[in-house]
Amino acid sequence: MHRGPCANGAAVLDGSMARYVHQCLAVN
């Protein structure tokens, strides 16, 4: 799951895998 701007965006900002994935899916 390292594709898209959320790869190192929400993941780094949030630091939570679950939240990162949710944000990624929501954005895409």
Q: Look at the helices and sheets and give the structural class.
A: mainly alpha
Q: What average pLDDT do the residues reach?
A: 57
Q: Summarize the biggest pleated sheet.
A: none
By DSSP, the count of extended strands is 0
Tertiary shape: globular
Helix content: 55-70%
What are the segments in which pLDDT stays under 50 over at least 5 consecutive residues? Answer: none
> Approximately how much beta-strand content do the residues carry?
under 5%
* Rg over C-alpha atoms, rounded to the nearest angstrom: 7 Å
Give the CA-CA distance, first to last residue.
Answer: 12 Å
Number of helices: 2
Topology as a string of helices (H) and strands (E): HH
Please tell me the total number of domains.
Answer: 1
Provide an overview of this structure.
It is a single chain. This protein is an all-alpha fold. The protein has one domain (1-28). The chain is 57% helix and 0% strand. It has 2 helices and no strands. It has helices spanning 10-14, 17-27. The protein is globular. The two termini are 12 Å apart. The model has no long low-confidence stretch (mean pLDDT 57).
